Amino acid sequence: MLKQRLLTAIVLIPLALYAVFGLELEWFAAAVLVLMTAGAWEWSPLMGLRRTLSKIAYTASVAILLGILMYLVPLHHIWVAGELAPVMLWVIVAGCVWWLIALGLVIQYPNSRRWWSKTRSIVGLFGYLTLIPAWAGLVAVRSLNYAENPLFGGFAVLFILLLVWAADVGAFFAGVRYGRNKLMPSVSPGKTMEGLCGGITLAFVVMMVVAHWVKIPAEQFSGYYLTGLLTVVASVFGDLNESMFKRCAGVKDSGSLLPGHGGILDRIDSLTAALPVFTLSYLWLLA
Predict the structure, then answer these.
(1) Which tens digits make up the pLDDT trace of 207-246?
(2) DSSP letter string, the chain
(3) Residue 142 to residue 157: CA distance in whole angstroms
């Protein structure tokens, strides 16, 4: 499994970096829309949808909502005079509110499943709140200072990816080596408190390296590190959140497209939480 994960990562990481730095903003937004639409296809079985037509309908609804959002907020007007377009802001805020609710659902699982697990429309709404704000957050970050420096937003996206990857890698190896105490066994039996600490520690190493490299001003240290910490914690619960829905649906992976990683949703679950949380934290603490 580890060998498969590494081989898949060797293929995916260059593709991700090319999308972040090699694509124009319009094509980047379209590529992320396709990614989120693929995530919607894999979310539909978590709702209990089995018929192909029903799965297509839900997937199409996510694509249509994203298309409407792109129409309402032209990509080169996402940021105006340093302010995020109101529609994008409210979508991202809605995403962050959802992740606070999801945190409660995960902590209270399995008791929390009583009022939502049997209702497809509620789980479908959760899917909208997972995927659409993630698209908005990623495109908003990628478009930061785009007119002045097209690479600035790309490096901001790379920073988020590095935090999420570091949290994932650190948690995996610390959990394998030192894992004793289960984090949330009813949701994800394999995750441990030691793994969580290892992931946060490695993410903080990344933050310190980046802070030194880009010379973050000392007066911004508190906002910078708090933004990073919130992003990492959100990524952990993004992973746990998807695990909760998969457990309810009785599936191990959301798909089988990526060897060793499962489906698209299995790869972006941490990012779906990290992106809106990072964007709102950036606006609150750093902008």
Answers:
(1) 999 999 999 999 999 999 999 999 999 999 999 999 999 8
(2) -HHHHHHHHHHHHHHHHHHHHHS-HHHHHHHHHHHHHHHHHHHGGGGT--SHHHHHHHHHHHHHHHHHHHHHS-GGGSEETTEE-HHHHHHHHHHHHHHHHHHHHHHHTTGGGGGTTT-HHHHHHHHHHHHHHHHHHHHHHHTTTTTT-HHHHHHHHHHHHHHHHHHHHHHHHHHHHH--SEEETTTEEEEEHHHHHHHHHHHHHHHHHHHHHHT--GGGHHHHHHHHHHHHHHHHHHHHHHHHHHHHHT-S-S-SSBTTTBSHHHHHHHHHHHHHHHHHHHHHHT-
(3) 6
pTM of the model: 0.93
Rounded to whole angstroms, the Cα distance separating 99 from 262 reads: 23
Cα dihedral 41→45→50→54 (10° resolution): -40
